[in-house]
Amino acid sequence: MALKKNPKVDLKLKYQRVFEISLALALFILVIAFKYLPQYKKEKVKIQAPQELVQVEDVTHTKQETPPPPPPKPPIPIEAPSDEVLQDIELQETELDVNAKVSAPPPPVKKKKEEDTAPTFFVAVEQMPEPIGGIQGIQARIHYPEIAKRAGVQGRVFVKAFVNEKGIVERVELIKGIGAGCDEEALKAVKATRFKPGMQRGKPVKVQVSIPILFKLQ
DSSP H helical segments within 99-145, as ranges? Predict the structure, then answer.
Protein backbone atom coordinates (compact mmCIF):
# COMPACT_ATOMS: atom_id res chain seq x y z
CA MET A 1 0.00 0.00 0.00
CA ALA A 2 1.17 3.52 -0.88
CA LEU A 3 1.93 5.80 1.98
CA LYS A 4 -0.04 9.06 2.16
CA LYS A 5 1.70 12.37 2.86
CA ASN A 6 1.16 14.20 6.06
CA PRO A 7 -1.12 17.18 5.30
CA LYS A 8 0.94 19.39 7.63
CA VAL A 9 4.07 19.06 5.50
CA ASP A 10 2.39 18.89 2.06
CA LEU A 11 3.39 22.08 0.19
CA LYS A 12 0.91 21.61 -2.63
CA LEU A 13 -1.98 22.20 -0.34
CA LYS A 14 -0.67 25.68 0.62
CA TYR A 15 0.54 26.65 -2.90
CA GLN A 16 -2.59 28.47 -4.02
CA ARG A 17 -2.85 30.55 -0.86
CA VAL A 18 0.83 31.52 -0.80
CA PHE A 19 0.58 32.65 -4.44
CA GLU A 20 -2.41 34.89 -3.80
CA ILE A 21 -0.80 36.53 -0.73
CA SER A 22 2.44 37.19 -2.65
CA LEU A 23 0.60 38.73 -5.59
CA ALA A 24 -1.44 41.04 -3.32
CA LEU A 25 1.68 42.15 -1.45
CA ALA A 26 3.50 42.94 -4.71
CA LEU A 27 0.63 45.08 -5.97
CA PHE A 28 0.48 46.95 -2.68
CA ILE A 29 4.22 47.76 -2.75
CA LEU A 30 3.92 48.95 -6.38
CA VAL A 31 1.04 51.31 -5.60
CA ILE A 32 2.91 52.80 -2.61
CA ALA A 33 6.01 53.29 -4.75
CA PHE A 34 4.15 55.22 -7.50
CA LYS A 35 2.32 57.39 -4.99
CA TYR A 36 4.98 58.45 -2.49
CA LEU A 37 8.29 58.25 -4.38
CA PRO A 38 9.42 61.54 -6.00
CA GLN A 39 8.82 62.00 -9.74
CA TYR A 40 11.67 62.94 -12.04
CA LYS A 41 10.95 65.02 -15.11
CA LYS A 42 13.23 65.31 -18.06
CA GLU A 43 14.32 68.79 -18.96
CA LYS A 44 14.91 69.67 -22.54
CA VAL A 45 18.33 71.19 -23.03
CA LYS A 46 18.66 73.57 -25.94
CA ILE A 47 22.14 73.90 -27.29
CA GLN A 48 22.66 77.05 -29.24
CA ALA A 49 25.67 76.77 -31.49
CA PRO A 50 27.26 79.93 -32.85
CA GLN A 51 26.23 80.62 -36.41
CA GLU A 52 29.03 80.68 -38.91
CA LEU A 53 28.82 83.03 -41.82
CA VAL A 54 29.95 81.54 -45.09
CA GLN A 55 31.06 84.00 -47.71
CA VAL A 56 30.53 82.90 -51.27
CA GLU A 57 33.02 84.35 -53.69
CA ASP A 58 32.45 84.60 -57.42
CA VAL A 59 35.04 82.55 -59.25
CA THR A 60 36.07 84.08 -62.53
CA HIS A 61 36.48 81.69 -65.43
CA THR A 62 40.05 81.44 -66.61
CA LYS A 63 40.59 81.99 -70.30
CA GLN A 64 43.18 79.96 -72.13
CA GLU A 65 45.06 82.40 -74.23
CA THR A 66 46.72 81.07 -77.34
CA PRO A 67 50.43 81.79 -77.37
CA PRO A 68 51.57 84.26 -80.01
CA PRO A 69 53.14 82.77 -83.14
CA PRO A 70 56.91 82.46 -83.10
CA PRO A 71 58.82 85.29 -84.68
CA PRO A 72 59.83 84.74 -88.30
CA LYS A 73 63.24 83.31 -88.91
CA PRO A 74 65.84 85.88 -89.83
CA PRO A 75 66.71 85.84 -93.52
CA ILE A 76 69.93 84.17 -94.53
CA PRO A 77 72.50 86.85 -95.23
CA ILE A 78 73.69 86.87 -98.83
CA GLU A 79 77.09 88.21 -99.50
CA ALA A 80 76.94 91.25 -101.76
CA PRO A 81 79.26 91.28 -104.75
CA SER A 82 82.43 93.19 -104.19
CA ASP A 83 83.47 96.21 -106.21
CA GLU A 84 86.02 94.17 -108.12
CA VAL A 85 83.32 91.82 -109.45
CA LEU A 86 81.11 94.73 -110.48
CA GLN A 87 83.94 96.30 -112.45
CA ASP A 88 84.36 93.13 -114.53
CA ILE A 89 80.74 93.28 -115.74
CA GLU A 90 80.26 95.10 -119.04
CA LEU A 91 76.89 96.72 -119.63
CA GLN A 92 75.66 96.70 -123.22
CA GLU A 93 73.75 99.52 -124.77
CA THR A 94 70.00 99.16 -124.46
CA GLU A 95 68.97 101.89 -126.85
CA LEU A 96 66.56 100.76 -129.58
CA ASP A 97 66.74 101.95 -133.16
CA VAL A 98 63.17 102.81 -134.11
CA ASN A 99 63.94 103.23 -137.83
CA ALA A 100 65.68 99.85 -138.15
CA LYS A 101 63.87 97.18 -140.22
CA VAL A 102 63.17 93.98 -138.32
CA SER A 103 62.52 90.76 -140.25
CA ALA A 104 59.68 88.50 -139.14
CA PRO A 105 60.69 85.35 -137.26
CA PRO A 106 60.41 82.06 -139.14
CA PRO A 107 57.24 79.99 -138.58
CA PRO A 108 57.53 77.28 -135.92
CA VAL A 109 58.42 73.85 -137.18
CA LYS A 110 55.64 71.32 -136.58
CA LYS A 111 56.87 68.17 -134.93
CA LYS A 112 55.63 64.96 -136.40
CA LYS A 113 53.89 62.67 -133.98
CA GLU A 114 55.87 59.55 -133.35
CA GLU A 115 53.91 56.53 -134.41
CA ASP A 116 53.61 53.70 -131.99
CA THR A 117 55.68 50.96 -133.59
CA ALA A 118 55.45 48.56 -130.65
CA PRO A 119 54.34 45.12 -131.85
CA THR A 120 50.96 43.80 -130.77
CA PHE A 121 50.90 40.49 -128.89
CA PHE A 122 47.73 38.42 -128.78
CA VAL A 123 46.41 37.26 -125.43
CA ALA A 124 44.46 34.24 -126.67
CA VAL A 125 44.82 32.41 -129.98
CA GLU A 126 43.71 29.10 -131.43
CA GLN A 127 46.98 27.39 -130.53
CA MET A 128 48.94 28.89 -127.62
CA PRO A 129 52.75 28.83 -127.57
CA GLU A 130 54.32 25.85 -125.84
CA PRO A 131 57.85 25.68 -124.45
CA ILE A 132 60.05 23.17 -126.21
CA GLY A 133 60.70 20.47 -123.63
CA GLY A 134 57.66 21.51 -121.61
CA ILE A 135 57.60 23.11 -118.18
CA GLN A 136 60.09 20.46 -117.04
CA GLY A 137 62.63 21.92 -119.46
CA ILE A 138 62.27 25.34 -117.87
CA GLN A 139 62.46 23.85 -114.37
CA ALA A 140 65.72 22.12 -115.36
CA ARG A 141 67.30 25.53 -116.06
CA ILE A 142 66.41 26.80 -112.58
CA HIS A 143 69.24 27.17 -110.09
CA TYR A 144 67.79 27.48 -106.56
CA PRO A 145 69.37 30.61 -104.98
CA GLU A 146 71.40 29.97 -101.83
CA ILE A 147 69.65 32.85 -100.04
CA ALA A 148 66.26 31.24 -100.70
CA LYS A 149 67.54 27.86 -99.46
CA ARG A 150 68.82 29.33 -96.20
CA ALA A 151 65.62 31.34 -95.64
CA GLY A 152 63.39 28.39 -96.58
CA VAL A 153 61.58 30.35 -99.32
CA GLN A 154 59.23 28.22 -101.43
CA GLY A 155 56.36 28.92 -103.79
CA ARG A 156 55.39 29.67 -107.39
CA VAL A 157 56.67 32.50 -109.55
CA PHE A 158 54.46 33.58 -112.45
CA VAL A 159 56.25 35.04 -115.47
CA LYS A 160 54.67 36.60 -118.56
CA ALA A 161 56.59 35.76 -121.75
CA PHE A 162 56.15 37.66 -125.04
CA VAL A 163 56.77 35.08 -127.80
CA ASN A 164 57.12 36.20 -131.45
CA GLU A 165 56.29 34.32 -134.67
CA LYS A 166 59.58 32.39 -134.55
CA GLY A 167 59.05 31.15 -130.98
CA ILE A 168 61.72 33.44 -129.51
CA VAL A 169 60.97 35.22 -126.24
CA GLU A 170 61.42 38.92 -126.92
CA ARG A 171 60.87 40.07 -123.34
CA VAL A 172 59.61 38.81 -119.99
CA GLU A 173 57.66 40.42 -117.15
CA LEU A 174 57.12 39.35 -113.55
CA ILE A 175 53.46 38.80 -112.64
CA LYS A 176 53.88 37.43 -109.10
CA GLY A 177 57.11 36.66 -107.25
CA ILE A 178 58.33 35.28 -103.95
CA GLY A 179 61.62 37.18 -103.63
CA ALA A 180 64.98 35.96 -102.28
CA GLY A 181 66.45 35.82 -105.80
CA CYS A 182 63.84 33.36 -107.11
CA ASP A 183 62.13 35.97 -109.30
CA GLU A 184 65.33 36.83 -111.18
CA GLU A 185 66.14 33.15 -111.68
CA ALA A 186 62.67 32.45 -113.11
CA LEU A 187 62.87 35.40 -115.52
CA LYS A 188 66.29 34.26 -116.73
CA ALA A 189 65.09 30.67 -117.32
CA VAL A 190 61.98 31.73 -119.27
CA LYS A 191 63.99 34.21 -121.34
CA ALA A 192 66.37 31.44 -122.43
CA THR A 193 63.56 29.05 -123.42
CA ARG A 194 62.55 28.44 -127.04
CA PHE A 195 58.81 28.08 -127.75
CA LYS A 196 56.61 26.60 -130.40
CA PRO A 197 54.97 29.76 -131.84
CA GLY A 198 51.30 30.39 -131.36
CA MET A 199 49.03 29.82 -134.37
CA GLN A 200 46.01 31.82 -135.46
CA ARG A 201 44.17 30.72 -138.65
CA GLY A 202 47.13 28.60 -139.63
CA LYS A 203 49.68 31.41 -139.33
CA PRO A 204 52.25 32.01 -136.56
CA VAL A 205 51.51 35.15 -134.55
CA LYS A 206 52.92 37.02 -131.58
CA VAL A 207 51.38 35.86 -128.31
CA GLN A 208 51.88 36.64 -124.62
CA VAL A 209 51.68 33.64 -122.32
CA SER A 210 51.90 33.14 -118.53
CA ILE A 211 54.40 30.54 -117.26
CA PRO A 212 54.34 29.21 -113.64
CA ILE A 213 57.74 28.28 -112.16
CA LEU A 214 57.78 26.16 -108.99
CA PHE A 215 60.44 26.59 -106.30
CA LYS A 216 60.35 23.75 -103.77
CA LEU A 217 63.01 22.57 -101.34
CA GLN A 218 63.70 18.85 -101.35
Answer: 134-140
157 with 176: CB under 8 angstroms?
A: yes
CA torsion sign for 148, 151, 152, 153 is negative
3-state SS class at 207: strand
CA 106 distance to own-chain centroid: 62
Residues in the chain: 218
CA atoms in the 13 A half-sphere facing the CB of 78: 3
Q: To 10 degrees, the CA torsion angle through 168, 174, 178, 179?
A: 90
Is 60 exceeded by the pLDDT of residue 115? no
pTM: 0.44
DSSP-derived secondary structure letter, 127: B
Domains of the chain are 130-215 (3.30.2420.10)
